[in-house]
């Protein structure tokens, strides 16, 4: 099947309230243009430098989402154009995003990344850290970031019950956070292998790469 078929098949299965971020990391501009010409505008990358290069070479109405872990010294390169940063897991990173957004007179939408997987290699906040972050005076003072929701990655496993349990937990944290931050609306969870479960558990934004663009080749 063509890339366009993959994209349309996935879009047809998504509920209306679920946004698709097409994860184009490692894929060339031509592949992104194929999806673009099929009408898609929202793309996700996990490396700042790669996203900047793609932004420079591609149509300016593309919405770029940074879905990977972000180093603070890289924020300045994307502050001008990034439309959402998914992997925010510290106050210091948020402060840097705020500082760089101010330079461009922007307000950058951010998702706080929660650690929900069993693996300890994945980034993210635990519940106590989330609470501490949003209650801090520094957090409340920032004018150029907007927390729009939460992001999480489930354990990489075939055990569906495990994955479901982790997504359920993230949804509970999201509902709880909404009492304190009533404007949050986005729950970013679900990738090629698990987005069906994620949607059943309340995801409103899925990040899908290989099921659209094909397997990635890292060599
Ligand atoms: C690569 C990546 C995805 C997409 O993964 P696929 O399995 O190819 O759909 C989603 N989220 C994050 C954070 C990623 O790094």
Give your account of this protein's structure.
This protein is α/β, with parallel strands linked by helices and about 220 residues long. It has a single domain (about 5-215), classed as Alpha-Beta Barrel (TIM Barrel). Helices cover about 40% and strands about 20% of the residues. The chain has ten helices and eight strands. The protein has helices at about 5-15, 30-35, 50-55, 75-80, 90-105, 125-135, 135-140, 160-180, 195-200, 210-215; strands at about 20-25, 40-45, 65, 85-90, 110-115, 145-150, 185-190, 205-210. Strands 7-6-5-4-3-2-1-8 form an eight-stranded parallel sheet. The longest helix is centred in the last third of the chain and has 21 residues, at about 160-180. It is globular, with a radius of gyration of 17 Å. The mean pLDDT is about 95. Pyridoxal-5'-phosphate (PLP) binds near residues 25, 68, 191, 207 and 208. Pyridoxal-5'-phosphate binds near residues 67 and 207. This is Pyridoxal phosphate homeostasis protein. GO terms for molecular function: pyridoxal phosphate binding. Its cofactor is pyridoxal 5'-phosphate. Pfam families: Ala_racemase_N. It comes from Flagellimonas nanhaiensis.
């Amino acid at each position: 099947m063509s890339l366009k078929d993959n994209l349309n098949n996935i879009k047809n299965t998504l509920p209306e309230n679920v946004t698709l971020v097409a994860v184009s990391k490692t894929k060339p501009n031509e592949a992104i243009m194929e999806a673009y010409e099929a009408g898609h505008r929202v793309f996700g990358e996990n490396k700042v430098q790669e996203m900047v290069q793609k932004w420079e070479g591609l149509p300016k109405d593309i919405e770029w989402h940074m879905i990977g872990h972000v180093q603070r010294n890289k924020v300045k390169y994307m502050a001008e154009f990034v439309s959402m940063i998914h992997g925010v897991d510290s106050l210091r990173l948020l402060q840097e995003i705020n500082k760089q957004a101010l330079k461009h007179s922007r307000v950058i939408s951010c998702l706080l990344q929660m650690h929900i997987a069993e693996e300890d290699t994945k980034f993210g906040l635990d519940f106590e850290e989330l609470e501490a972050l949003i209650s801090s005076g520094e957090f409340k003072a920032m004018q150029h970031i907007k927390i729009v929701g939460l992001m999480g990655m489930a354990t990489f496993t075939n055990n569906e019950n495990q994955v479901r349990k982790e997504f359920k937990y993230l949804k509970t944290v999201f509902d709880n956070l909404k009492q304190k931050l009533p404007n949050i609306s986005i729950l970013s969870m679900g990738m090629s292998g698990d987005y069906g479960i994620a949607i059943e558990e309340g995801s409103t934004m899925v990040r899908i790469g290989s099921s659209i663009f094909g397997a990635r080749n890292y060599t």
